[in-house]
Structure formats: structure tokens, C-alpha cells
TrEMBL record, chains A, B:
Protein name: Histidinol dehydrogenase
Species annotation: Elizabethkingia argenteiflava
Cofactor: Zn(2+)
Catalytic activity: L-histidinol + 2 NAD(+) + H2O = L-histidine + 2 NADH + 3 H(+)
Cofactor: binding comment: Binds 1 zinc ion per subunit.
Enzyme Commission number(s) of this protein: 1.1.1.23
Designated gene of the protein: hisD
Family, per entry: Belongs to the histidinol dehydrogenase family.
């Protein structure tokens, strides 16, 4: 880690910088695959799966047989762990349901909002070395709580044409029936336009590499909603002399192992702790299976000593991390001061892994500073809120004259007239 | 209006079509202006304002003198009308505040969310013939309720270098201090990158023409959040034999006068009512100041007779209108069946104008079918929700073993280790 001792505030902005992304222009690739998908439909899915995933499929839809086989392969232990996570995630996201509140803004003017599920949602789950079945829970559970009538899941097949069985088991636990063996840009294109096999959806959610991210952005420009802009995962830890350096190092590594482009930042008021964490890091790193990845991520990561915890919080708010661990004494006292972060973990026993898997909070969070303006995935991500109003004759008499004046001032006389004809009718019916 | 009597369901999809937008490619123009803004800063704002708005400004910031003068120009009547609207909009948006709910998903595992305002928001208000000061209220009020520390407003100057006084009065009513005389792509570019005069913001909200829309999309691709994709305004009315044809016609016209690209759709079960509405339309149209605009909008609008109200609701849900008026007997009985709309108006006295100005609901709504996946602007548009968790030693013992199993199955051993080191420490401290 790069170490900074008491950098001046004028130096902070350099320290907020994220690792520079290789700005490869994927736009032409995305547009080509989207075009082919529109023209060739399912055939494009077969072709690109053969090209990119190295497997020739005859069927994209995961069969019941494959689902059953996955149930046999996955251990009971893992299923039980998933079930515990499922219960906690469900409980937390159920608490996000809102009650209808009717507000009578003036006598006879009733306004309220009602939630409705987004009808068709597509969930993308990356394949590759780490089969992210936990993301199936994090996206599928709120989708089912929202009551989305149609949920589909796309994930790339491995070289044998299979989706990791843990992903299939998680999808079955959630109740997702439509699972497709297709990944990358071609999966996002299929969810955007639809094919005979894969339905077009209203919203696409889920993590992915730079190809998937670029494809989701293109889908968005075509009118499909997406969960949020994506970037490499991040963790910022604020630690003081009360922190446990072994825990802090373990947390930094748990983030660093995600990818070489992950970024971890340690802010501390204690130079002693910093030394101990750095020692722990090299010790723990030596045992890690993903040591090579974590080392590279650490190389562009930062350990910074600041004067006081208030400075650490101020730094963190300006950085706006995806994950923030407050491993300090009396962490709760700083909650109100946090103005930007995806998910915050308080105290020495609240490790990021807990939120990644099983505490109940969602792990799909805004990265790259987007927590300044975006929330993580929640029940809200799968619903829209429709406003309703019911105005009585009396209600319109209360607000009508004001509407007439404002419409007139905006030179929208037909808007005014819609009120005037009603007010006249109310008066003439009374006479 | 184009009239359709009992079209078959197979014909519906043609009737869902929105007026085709002239697909002018604005991308190069947007990129050029964004580039100039980055290089020339405020000078680019002066140059483009001279070019597009025809006025040479020496200062972009609206002065206190201009604000005071606006207060003198705007009539007390209009100010009172605005105040009534302000109170209702504030009341309704205040009701959208959420209470913090701490959920103990397992003993010792506490999870909750807290709302934080987006720190810097930019509001765009179009100029032109209709000075949309009502949008200042609709965007400014929730922004101030959210507690956004920095709110700026951009609106193009007229040929005399002034912003319409009603816009300035509305902004003062809301409490927006930073008001800039700049519009179009250059305003969005300034809000995206910042200049010495105009601060860069985290989110840009507000209506605009196709140039502003294209610029907002570009801002979004650069990481600035926006309210929602925009399209021409729409209204769908469902009417039965109990509807008042005069009211229905007035509502259709109030939408049609917005622009030549506006779309209105009338669905009814009554051929009689259809005839009466068409008669009323031509009668009322003759008195309208914006007759030319409304006539063009009506030319590509549709009046459709369907078998039953259930069919009308089904049609409307598939069309997903921005505004939906249910001018039918017992309108409330159909609320639960509505699955996609921006804002819904129930009964004969709930006209769209009420929601446009003063009932309390927001008028910034998803158009062009986006109400399938987007909500209108609300308090939510100005906040983000941060998740928090506080896990005790006991809590980690409850969920830790499941996290270890899941992390292992995802081959993320550092994630597992972050739990393992803590569980070991808990046990060794107990011994």
C-alpha cells in the first residue's frame, strides 16, 4: 500500500482518485453484437457463446434436469448457509415495503403514492472463476418481494456448457424459473430486444465486467432501465488505536481479492496501528489463494494517517466509498456525520463479508464515487411509485383559482380551461 | 383525432406507438459544446448564449437586484397562487420522508438504512414561450425538503438577457439562491464540469427540449445522475358513459397544447361519449390561443372505443402513460388494476392541471412508456439511502459460519478469512 502521513487537505483530491480504468472503446463491439442480435436472434446467442465462451450450445434455457442435478451436486452445508442468508436478506428487504399514506393537502384534495412491481426484470450474474451465487440472492430476493411477475436470469456457461450449480440452487431458492446460459454483451442485447427464447425486459440489474457494463449503458440509452453505473469494488476503513490490526488487514484483503482493479483505503489516526496493519497484511497475504490479484490491488491502494477521526470522516465523505468500515471506538457516534457511502459497517465485528453474504443488507452498491448520488439495490430498485389523486368538487373549488392563475401566467390556457369548465359546472349545478 | 372502434387486441400494439421523434443526431453538437465548455469555461457560456439565445451577457449569475425587480413585477395574485401550490407540494413531499427502521435480522445483527441528501443538485428550467415556474416548485421543494446543501438553477435568458420574473419569484419562494442565466446544452455542460461561476453538481434534474435531453444523457454517461429519460408529454383518459364530455375534451386539449409532439389518447366504452367529446374538441379548440400546436398534437392522437373498462385498463397498462385520468363511475375500484402510469387522476373533478400545478403531487413524470420502470420525481430523487449494520460478537457467531461456507463456495477465501479471524478471536477471548 502507498502510505501517506498527515497529507495536507490540498493533497486530498489526489488521494480520492480511483485507479484509472483502461479506456478501451467497447462501443463498436457492443453495437455490432446488438445489431447481430436483432438480425439473427437466438442464432446470435449461439454464435457468440461459441466465440466467447468456447462452447457450442443447442439450448440456452437451463432444463429442469440441470436444475435437479445442481441440487444433487451442491452440499447440504452450503444450502443451509444460503438459506440463512436468504432469510436475513428477505427480512431486511421486506422491511423496505411502504405503507400507503393518503395526504389530504387541502379539504377535498387527496394525494398518495402506490408501489407497483416492474413487470419484467432481467438479472445478470457473471460466470468465471468466482461463481457469484450470492448476487442471485441479493437481486432475486427483492425482485420477488416486489412481486415482479417476470424475472429472468442470464449467466454465461462454462466450457462444458453448464452454469455453476450453486447459481442454479440459489435461483431455485429465490424462485427464479427462467434461467439462460448466456453471458456478456450478447446476454444484455437479448434482454434489451428479446428473442424467441429470451424475453425483452424493462430493467436489467446485476454486476459484470467492462463488456457487460458497456452493454448495460447501451441498453440504457435505448430506454431499458439499469440498476446503476458500475465500477471496480472498493472499501474504505477508518480505524483508530482501538482497532484490531488483524481484523483490519483481513478486511482490506477481502476487498483486494475481488480484482486487480479493486481499491482499498485505510484511514487512521494511529501510526502504530498503520504499522501493525501493514505487517498483518504481508503475513495474511502469504496464505491467500488469490494472492496475485490482491497484491496488485494493494499496489494502487492507500494507507493514510490523518490528524483526527473528524478528518477521516470528512475524507471518506469526499471519496464516497462503496463500503465503509468504521472500526473505531464508539462507531455509532459518527453515523450522523456520514454523508456518502454505499454500505457502512460499524465496529470491530461488522466485517464487509457479513454484508456481502448474510447479514441482510444488499451487496449491490454504488462504486467509483457514485454513492454521492445513487443508493444501492433495494426493494425500490424493483418497483416504481405511481402517484394518485382524487379531488372532489369542493377540493377543486379550493385549488382551482390558483391553478387558473398559474396556468395563465405560464400561457397555458387549455390547462386553465380544464379547471374553468369544471368550476363553472359546479356553480351552475348549485344554482 | 384518429378514431378506432373495437380494434382487435392484435391491433393494439400499433396503437401504443408514440409519435416518431425526429432522430436528429445531436451527439456531435453536444460533444462539441461540452469540449468548448471544458476549455473555455465561462467564456463558452457567454459565447453560446450569444449564439443561441441572441444576447450578449456580462454576468451569468442573477443579481439580487434582478430578484427584487422580479418580486415587484409579479402580481400579488400570482404570488398567492404560487404560495398555495407551494404549501400543497411541500405537504405531500414531506409525507415521503421515511423513518429509520432498525431490523435485527438475527440476534446481534442490526441492519438499517438512512437517507442523506445529494449534496449538489442542478435544476434546469426551460425558457421560451411558456415560463415553467411551476417546475421550479416541483423540483425545488423536494430538493429543500431533502436538505440538499447546494441547489442551483439554470434557465436561458430572453433576448433582453432576463429570466422570466415568475421563475425568479418561484425560486425565491423555494429558497434557491444560485440562479444562472444559461440554458441549453451549455448549461448542462457547465453543471457537469463546473466553471468558475457555476459549480459542478452530482445530479441534474428538470425538463428540456431535445438538445437538453441529449446533453443530460451525455452528462449521465460521464457519471452525473439525472432524473429520468425525457420524452414528449402524454395523457391517456379512460371515460365511460358517466363522463362529462366537456371536461374530457378540455383535459385532452390541456395536454395537446404542450407541444406538437404531445400525444393524447381517449379510451372509452361509449361511442356516444366519443362523438360528444369530438364535438367538444372542435368547439373548445376554436377558442384556444395555442390552437395551432394543439391541432397538430391531436392529428396524431387517438380515440379508441373498447368493449369494457377492463380492456381500457389493460390497454393503458401496456401503453404506460405519463398521465392517466380515470373519468369513470367508481374510479377508485380500478386503482389496484393500474400497473403502469406516472400519475393517476380519479373521477370527473381530478383534472391533470391540478397535478400540474397545485394539488401537491409532482408533475415531473416518466413519459414514452418509461412509467413501466421509472417513478416520477419525488423526495427520493434528491436523496440516497445508505445501509448500515452493526454486528456484535454474538451476531457474528450466528451468521459467521454461513458466511464462511458461502465465501468458500465462491472461492473468495479472504472474504472467509475476515470472518474466521474474528470468530477465532471471540473464542480465544472466551477461554
Amino acid at each position: 500500500m502507498q502510505t501517506y502521513i498527515y497529507p495536507s487537505i490540498s493533497e486530498w483530491s489526489l488521494l480520492f482518485q480511483r485507479p484509472i480504468q483502461p479506456r478501451e472503446d467497447l462501443q463498436n463491439t457492443v453495437l455490432q453484437i446488438f445489431e447481430d442480435l436483432k438480425n439473427l436472434q437466438d442464432q446470435a446467442l449461439f454464435d457468440y457463446t461459441e466465440k466467447f465462451d468456447g462452447v457450442k450450445l443447442s439450448n440456452i434455457l437451463v432444463s429442469n434436469q440441470e436444475k435437479e442435478r445442481a441440487q444433487q451436486i451442491v452440499s447440504e452445508d452450503l444450502k443451509q448457509a444460503m438459506k440463512l442468508a436468504f432469510d436475513n436478506i428477505q427480512q431486511f428487504h421486506l422491511s423496505q415495503k411502504e405503507q400507503k399514506k393518503i395526504v389530504e393537502t387541502m379539504p377535498g384534495v387527496n394525494c398518495w403514492r402506490e408501489s407497483r412491481p416492474i413487470e419484467k426484470v432481467g438479472i445478470y450474474i457473471p460466470g468465471g472463476s468466482a461463481p457469484l451465487f450470492s448476487s442471485v440472492l441479493m437481486l432475486g430476493i427483492p425482485a420477488t418481494i416486489a412481486g415482479c411477475p417476470y424475472i429472468s436470469l442470464c449467466s454465461p456457461p462454462d466450457i462444458n456448457g453448464k452454469i455453476n450449480p450453486a447459481i442454479l440452487v440459489a435461483a431455485q431458492l429465490v424462485g427464479i424459473r427462467n434461467i439462460y446460459k448466456v453471458g456478456g454483451i450478447q446476454a444484455i442485447a437479448a434482454l434489451t430486444f428479446g428473442t424467441p427464447t429470451i424475453k425483452a425486459v424493462d430493467k436489467i440489474l446485476g454486476p459484470g465486467n467492462q463488456y457487460v457494463t458497456a452493454a448495460k449503458q447501451t441498453a440504457q440509452s435505448l430506454g431499458i432501465a439499469i440498476d446503476m453505473p458500475a465500477g471496480p469494488s472498493e472499501l474504505l476503513i477508518i480505524a483508530d488505536e482501538s482497532s484490531n490490526p488483524e481484523f483490519v488487514a483481513a478486511d482490506l484483503l477481502s476487498q483486494a481479492e475481488h480484482g486487480t482493479d479493486s481499491q482499498v483505503i485505510l484511514l487512521t489516526t494511529s501510526r502504530d496501528l498503520l504499522e501493525q496493519v501493514l505487517n498483518q497484511l504481508s503475513h495474511q497475504l502469504s496464505f491467500l489463494s488469490r494472492k496475485a490479484i490482491a497484491s496488485q490491488a494493494l499496489a494502487h491502494s492507500r494507507a493514510i494517517v490523518l490528524e483526527c477521526l473528524e478528518d477521516c470522516i470528512a475524507f471518506s465523505n469526499l471519496y464516497a466509498p462503496e463500503h465503509l468500515i468504521l472500526a473505531v471506538k464508539n462507531a455509532n457516534a459518527y453515523v450522523d456525520k456520514i454523508t456518502a457511502a454505499g454500505s457502512v459497517f460499524l465496529g470491530n465485528f461488522s466485517c464487509e463479508s457479513a454484508g456481502d453474504y448474510a447479514s441482510g443488507t444488499n451487496h449491490t452498491l454504488p462504486t467509483n464515487g457514485y454513492s454521492k448520488s445513487y443508493s444501492g439495490v433495494s426493494l425500490d430498485s424493483f418497483i416504481k411509485k405511481i402517484s394518485f389523486q382524487e379531488i372532489t368538487a369542493q377540493g377543486l373549488q379550493n385549488i382551482g383559482p390558483s391553478i387558473e392563475k398559474m396556468a395563465e401566467a405560464e400561457q397555458l390556457y387549455a390547462h386553465k380551461n380544464a379547471v374553468s369548465v369544471r368550476l363553472k359546472s359546479i356553480i351552475s349545478n348549485k344554482i
